[in-house]
Amino acid sequence: MTGWLRLRQIALIEPELEAPIAALKEVFGLAEGFRDDHLEAMFGLTNCLLPIGEQLLEVCATVKPDTQGTRFIQRRGAGGYMVILQAEPHAAFRDRIGALGVRVIAEAENPAYHLVQLHPRDTGGPMLEVDRHEGGDTPENPWTHAAGTNWRHAIRTGRVSAIAAAEIQSDDPAVTAARWSILLDRPVHTPHDGTHRIALDGSDLRFVRTSDGRGEGLGGIDLRATDKAAVLAAAKARDLPIDGDTVTLAGLRFRLVP
């Protein structure tokens, strides 16, 4: 893919909203940036966006029965839900998935933005969304369709400063990585640790074998830590599972990286 492709947002799906938000704020030192009042009517969800540097961690909660979100939780459990990328240019991506016959489960377009959500059965792993913003990513147009115009006031980088990677798990990570490589027109790299990776602009997608019994999907994210000790101390105070530099919270593994 010519141009650039960024990891812009990670979404979790939960049966209840406030408890995971409180835990994420307390452990990672985050603040609330935006809530979208339109999601309940559109998808049967409520949400809250927590900025991590110039990226966003979204917590969604189901508020209606028999929706895509409730079916996801019934099938896989709460936790990692969506990987949301920002692409410039976007038209080549949209043309490519059309030619590949990948199912689109949601699409919206106006002069300011264009978002496309793909069916997870066709991507393998979490739901993938790729969006475009008119004028790219500037302070005058800061991801407004998803986060409003004022979310940057909530950026806190005292403990974590960026989402460095999304970890996508499946029974055959090489096959899943190859599929995403075709969708995104980015090559797969296999470093010395044996994982399969797709490099984005400023972050990675990492494909690993499922080891938690939950099947394919978004298993974790890497966060660039500015105060790892404070994160681990807060996680310990909440009796959260900790494995080395990895904290499990809200059904997702958060790995702290330099």
How would you describe this structure in keywords?
258 residues; alpha+beta; 2,3-Dihydroxybiphenyl 1,2-Dioxygenase, domain 1; 2 domains; 15 strands; 25% helix
What can you tell me about this protein's structure?
- The protein is of the alpha+beta class.
- The chain folds into two domains: 4-154, 2,3-Dihydroxybiphenyl 1,2-Dioxygenase, domain 1, CATH 3.10.180; 160-257, Roll (2,3-Dihydroxybiphenyl 1,2-Dioxygenase, domain 1).
- It is 25% helix and 39% strand.
- It contains eight helices and 15 strands.
- It has helices spanning 18-28, 39-43, 68-76, 91-100, 120-123, 144-147, 173-184, 228-237; strands at 4-14, 45-52, 55-62, 79-88, 104-109, 113-118, 127-133, 160-170, 188-189, 196-199, 204-209, 217-225, 242-243, 246-249, 252-257.
- The strands form two sheets. It has an eight-stranded mixed beta sheet with strand order 9-10-11-8-12-15-14-13. The protein has a seven-stranded mixed beta sheet with strand order 2-3-1-4-7-6-5.
- The chain is globular.
